[in-house]
Amino acid sequence: MQYVEVAVSVPVGLNQTFHYRVPANLSGQVSRFSRVEVPFAGRLVQGFVLGFSDPPNLKMIKDVKRVVEKQAYLNEELFQLAQWMVQRYLCSIGDALQTIAGSPAGAARVKERVIVAIDGIDGDDKLTGLVRAPKQRRALEVALASPGLKKSELAELAEVSTPVIDALLAKGLLQEVESYKKIMPDPPPRQESLQLTPEQLTVVNQLVNAINSPKPSAWLLHGVTGSGKTEVYLRAIEHTLNLGRQAIVLVPEISLTPQMVERFRSRFGDAVALLHSALSNGEKYAEKDRIRTGQAMVVLGARSAIFAPTPKLGLIIIDEEHESSYKQDESPKYHAREVALQRAALNQGVVLLGSATPAIESYCRARPGGPYGLLTMTQRIDQRPLPRVQIVDMRQELAGGNTGIFSLALQRALAQRLARQEKSILFLNRRGFASIVVCRQCGQVMKCPHCDISLTLHHDGILRCHYCGHRTANPRVCPSCGGKAIRSFGVGTQRVEEEVRRLFPDCQVLRMDADTTSRKGSHQKLLDEFSRGGGQILIGTQMIAKGLDIPQVTLVGVISADVTLHMPDFRSAERTFQLLTQVAGRAGRGEKSGEVIIQTYDPEHFSILTARNHDFLSFYHKEMTHRKALKYPPFSHLIKILFSGLNEADVIAAAEWWQDKLTAIKHECGGQEIEILGPAPAGIPKIKDRWRWQLVIKGPDSREIRNVARIALAQAGIRFKQVAVSIDVDPVSL
Prior knowledge:
This protein has 734 residues and is an alpha/beta fold. The chain has five domains: 2-104, PriA, 3(prime) DNA-binding domain (GIY-YIG endonuclease, 3-Layer(aba) Sandwich), CATH 3.40.1440.60; 109-180, Arc Repressor Mutant, subunit A; 198-382, 3-Layer(aba) Sandwich (Rossmann fold); 384-435 and 490-627, Rossmann fold (3-Layer(aba) Sandwich); 637-729, CATH 3.30.70.600. The protein is 33% helix and 23% strand. The strands form seven sheets. Strands 10-11-9-12-13-8-14 form a seven-stranded parallel beta sheet, sandwiched between helices. Strands 15-25-24-16-23-22 form a six-stranded parallel beta sheet, with helices on both faces. The protein has a five-stranded antiparallel beta sheet with strand order 2-1-4-3-5.
């Protein structure tokens, strides 16, 4: 009888595992890292086999119920990574392994039967000797030229009937084999390497030396928008592949992936694998198999692609490294940048972080004496100028009688671009038609009944909650006082689209936000339509603010720079600067110069003024002064602990218990510089009927505050069964 140690994918102690017996019918099917289904706490859960064990000293031991995957996409390196994640993010080993391995998928879902010719029959003389019938010979020639077609596809391409294919199969000249379905079309024609600028050449040479070194290293590439960072990435990857090693490239948004895919596949062909959340589990399974076997040497994808099962990893590139989308929202709340650094350390590899607006913490680490090397590119390709930026004070517009969405300057600029047949982008980081609906008689704001957040009015007259999806009709009378003075305030992307169509009725307008890109492939379709002439003005949220390289765009309008500026978060100024600089960088990437118009009610704010001048260093030094005064990162580390439950009193009780416990533990551990902030209601106090409170641990030493949280977590145990506790180490938002 065999016994196994299993890490279950449910919240338990950090390194807690459980023992199960392998029944006779599963003998030989279970191995290290098998994904299995086991009984746990009265239900069946999935877990991962960590190894075989001696018979445990237990009165009763349960059986493994079934093998979900004989070999999940895990290996020894990824197991070491999971152990590191347990210590870094205070999660269970089962949760860490589940995050790394992803969802299971049967190979049958992504396999199909295709036709290939047998080996050794290429050449006219051999073909003539093997088949005399013209149709059979034509089908055999097509099979040799295009292996991997389905039977019907081969018959259609060769212009023969399927019985002709069957005859060749019967003769043994063709064979039908199983193959993974292709999730991408054939790669575009190979694009040769571009001529490097002197700055690019200097950066590439430094990276080549780093890749050749047997020591792991991390580099921050600070390059202005349009400076050619992607070509640097491609050259670094080429060198990595020449050494027989693999590369992972992360992009922050699925919307960026299609453009990157085309560029990368034109250079590396079918050696590129794609991993992101829009793929089905079966498609991910097929891509991971190509990565594991070395058929795919370049992995391109969003955040979770950092866990790709690369056996020969040598290089990790994180494009737009400052983006908050690299932070996972659910436990374990990992940051792809930190995971990349750990994987590089385990593989003696190189991490390259690229951005025109690096995260404050990243740039701090790249200063002299820091752990990152700093690479800079200050010039755009072909010495193209950065776009001119104009700030419009919307207070003056209002004083002059303009109560509309667009300033007069932006209206004129849009009209000029339409007359010259140039393209424009309008950016607003808020979807919907209006941000709030209010009764002007009693002041009642229409809120979601399940979340403590205002409902957003959409163009179809429906009020929607962007957190839980609740929908209701826009009321004609106030549900609180019965008044009829219901009005909408604020602006969303749908309202911007309506106003553009009113001002320019003959203009072709496209909108790109979460409402228009929910279907698979919709990002690519909209971008293709805009870049190939199907739209003159593109309206969108932050998914259009970075990475898009459309040479015809000469104007970018920021409808309201204040949406992110006054959020109650210590990173609000940083996010504002990054968004403004990134979206401004979409203009003037071709032969014609670009212009940016930023509309704001706070034109004197330093984040807006430095963005106007494309001046990251001035912003960095100003922001660091504020952070140091308030002891915020990078001058401290934070842990946010969120408590949620259906009963607010239970949630408050749990938060207060934790506050008392953390205070006592920090004194016992001598952490005099550690602060416990809160508890207090979360930024959104209720989501999906669950009340939310939070507290924050703040201190100069990351290990110290994690140790305090770890001790409290162990002592809490299952004390508060009705309250979920979520730990976020180094949160990107409070």
